[in-house]
């Protein structure tokens, strides 16, 4: 449990202060946001350099992302240049409540409301604080995610398709795929509102904390930090990411029980079977096929499915 006597985090004051030259880590708490004070760790290196912010836990049940942030907290500040700001859990209510997709305090997906609003509901206020008081003072941001409770994703990064700096950061992270999306209320949209490039890094899911997936995400973060100039090159060239523009989504035509046929990352030809829906008596009621050939980037893996829910993403390179 965090010590409530820890100092209050003030990103602008920290970012404006020259790097002291003495490597150190300092722990802070955010100002109170709807009854919760968020943990923030500042790792200051021994030499001047950029300020990079890494956040995790917008969705509180994405455990591989959360564990990746915990690993970052153990970095030796002496190995850094500039500052690394780690926000290891930015939706405490969702984490404590084991919530799926949303902030339980307002029922909203917090990664669809950026840049947020100081006068809005809980998710809007968290997004506003992150955007105005944290992200805007960074040189770049990395926002960590996994699939949620009933989802599983192939390792991919998300960048804003019209921002070349965001795209280059995504490619530098070296995950299997780099997906270019239009703005849509994501964390990286909030950063972009102040001219700060950012990427979302994502892998794994389904309430499982898998060490091999955490290794993948952690490696991607280190490569992005090296590209930003915070750490030395970590060595080894990852395979170039396959760049994908706006994946195709398949929606559930009705409710039922979902049975996926493939593993994420698989390449599927046009009209390949992605999965099947059965009714509660076990009768097959729908066969879901790919509208185009491409890689299976994301899929629903939980059994319950409701009409209109996204079953999968298919991405063409």
UniProtKB/TrEMBL annotation:
> What Gene Ontology terms describe what this protein does at the molecular function level?
hydrolase activity, acting on carbon-nitrogen (but not peptide) bonds, in linear amides; hydrolase activity, acting on ester bonds; metal ion binding
Q: Where's the Succinylglutamate desuccinylase/Aspartoacylase catalytic domain?
A: 48-226
Q: Which SUPFAM superfamilies match?
A: Zn-dependent exopeptidases
Q: Which cofactors, by name?
A: Zn(2+)
- Keyword annotations: Hydrolase, Metal-binding, Zinc
Q: Specify the domain of life of the species encoding this protein.
A: Bacteria
Q: Which InterPro entries match?
A: AstE_AspA_cat, N-alpha-Ac-DABA-like, N-alpha-Ac-DABA_deacetylase
Task: Tell me the Pfam families matching this sequence.
Answer: AstE_AspA_cat
Q: Where is this region: Disordered?
A: 1-26
Protein name in UniProt: Succinylglutamate desuccinylase/aspartoacylase family protein
């Amino acid at each position: 449990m965090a010590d409530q006597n820890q100092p209050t985090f003030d990103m602008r004051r920290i970012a404006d202060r020259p790097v002291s030259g003495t490597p150190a880590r300092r722990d802070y708490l955010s100002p109170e946001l709807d009854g919760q004070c968020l943990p923030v760790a500042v790792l200051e290196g021994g030499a001047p350099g950029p300020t990079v912010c890494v956040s995790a836990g917008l969705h509180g049940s994405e455990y591989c992302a959360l564990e990746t942030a915990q690993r970052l907290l153990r970095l030796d500040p002496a190995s850094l240049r500039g500052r690394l700001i780690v926000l290891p859990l930015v939706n405490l209510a969702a984490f404590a409540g084991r919530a799926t997709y949303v902030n339980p305090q307002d029922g909203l997906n917090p990664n669809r409301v950026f840049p947020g609003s100081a006068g809005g509901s809980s998710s809007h206020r968290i997004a506003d604080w992150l955007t105005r008081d944290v992200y805007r003072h960074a040189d770049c941001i990395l926002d960590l995610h996994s699939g949620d409770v009933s989802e599983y994703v192939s390792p991919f990064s998300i960048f804003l398709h019209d921002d070349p700096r965001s795209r280059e950061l995504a490619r530098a992270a070296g995950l299997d795929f780099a997906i270019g999306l239009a703005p849509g209320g994501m964390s990286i949209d909030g950063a972009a509102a102040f001219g700060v490039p950012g990427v979302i890094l994502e892998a794994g899911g389904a309430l499982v904390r898998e060490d091999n997936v955490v290794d993948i995400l952690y490696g991607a973060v280190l490569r992005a930090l090296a590209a930003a100039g915070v750490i030395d090159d970590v060595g080894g060239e990852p395979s170039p990411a396959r760049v994908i523009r706006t994946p195709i989504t398949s929606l559930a035509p009705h409710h039922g029980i979902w049975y996926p046929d493939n593993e994420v990352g698989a390449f599927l030809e046009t009209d390949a079977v992605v999965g099947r829906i059965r009714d509660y008596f076990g009768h097959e009621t729908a066969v879901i096929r790919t509208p185009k050939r491409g890689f299976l980037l994301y899929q629903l893996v939980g059994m319950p499915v409701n009409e209109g829910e996204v079953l999968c993403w298919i991405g063409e390179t």
